[in-house]
Amino acid sequence: MFTVSLIASPAAANLDGDLPGGLASRWQGSAPRVLAPGIAAEFDIDPVPADADQVWSDLQRIGIDLAIQPTEGRRKRILIADMDSTMIDQECIDELADFAGVGARVADITARAMNGELNFHEALIERVSLLAGLSEEVIGTVLRDRITMAAGGATLVATMRAHDAYTALVSGGFTAFTAAVADRLAFHEHRANTLLAEDGVLTGHVALPVLGREAKVEALQQIAAHLGTTAQNAIAVGDGANDLGMIQLAGAGVALHAKPVVAAQAQIRINHGDLTALLYLQGYGADDFVTP
């Protein structure tokens, strides 16, 4: 048995009430269950229909995301999430680079690395080198003035924690940011790279080894083992090429507003919904949501 999820942007709330029923009838599925009026609904099918990809493409044009997953085990015990452009709206290194006067150059490298065009390790080393001489105090300024939490993230973490899930923020960015974001969103733990500084000034180096794609995979494996379960019991979310490993390993891997190379290889693509889409994908309804 498989479950079909239909999810709209909460801001648009444009999931027509007749659409789930019409699609369920077309695919000989169960009666739809409304998870949030105008935003999310689901129904069960068996087997996966041959025209699923075409229907996904058609729905994208009207701002609706569609996902099909095995029904059994949809509700996960682990949430593992990327930070930059996933749990927050910005790329922290790009914001630091703007203060250092190298914003455009670093942003270009970031974009290429996240799209899989550059080796992540080498790209990070190059970008960090351009921050040499920047005051550590700028980190606090960026956190205060430029970093915003992505829509739905606080509700996602709070709701999964309320249902006994373990939550981890795992970033190719920096601990100076993940510590603050993890605290604000109440993640159980965070992992990231460490920017090195001397006398309050960034040296242009990062502590080794660099936390990149493989380290995110290892983090998921370690967390699952510690909890006595497997990566199949995890939902992973990210947007960049360095997230693909954990997205593909997790039982539910979500490419959220992701780079094309990531979306093309992910199990689940959310292009319109916000982070609460990860709750709808697990069968949570809006009435189940916990507001922090």
Give structural attributes.
single chain; 292 residues; alpha/beta; Alpha-Beta Plaits; 2 domains; 6-stranded parallel sheet; 4-stranded antiparallel sheet; 12 helices; elongated
Question: Can you characterise this structure?
Answer:
By secondary structure, the chain is of the alpha/beta class. It folds into two domains: 72 residues, Alpha-Beta Plaits; 160 residues, Rossmann fold. The strands form three sheets. Strands 7-6-5-10-11-12 form a six-stranded parallel β-sheet. The chain has a four-stranded antiparallel β-sheet with strand order 2-3-1-4. It has a two-stranded antiparallel sheet with strand order 8-9. Helix 8 links the parallel strand 6 and strand 7. 47% of the residues are buried.
Summarize the structure.
The chain is α/β, with parallel strands linked by helices. It contains twelve helices and twelve strands.
Kindly estimate the percentage of residues that lie in beta strands according to DSSP: 15-25%
**CATH homologous superfamily identity of the largest domain:** HAD superfamily/HAD-like
> What is the CATH architecture assignment of the largest domain?
3-Layer(aba) Sandwich
Instruction: Summarize the amount of helix as a percent range.
Output: 25-40%
The shape, in one word, is elongated
CATH topology of the largest domain: Rossmann fold
Order of helices and strands: EHEEHEEHHHHHEHEEEHEHEHEH
How far apart are the termini? 34 Å
Chain-averaged pLDDT: 97
The number of distinct structural domains comes to: 2
Indicate the CATH class of the largest domain: Alpha Beta
**Strand line-up in the sheet with most strands:** 7-6-5-10-11-12
As residue ranges, the low-confidence spans are: none
For the secondary structure, the number of strands is 12
Q: For the CA atoms, what is the radius of gyration?
A: 20 Å
Largest sheet at a glance? Answer: 6 strands, parallel
Count of alpha/pi helices: 12
The computed structural class is alpha/beta
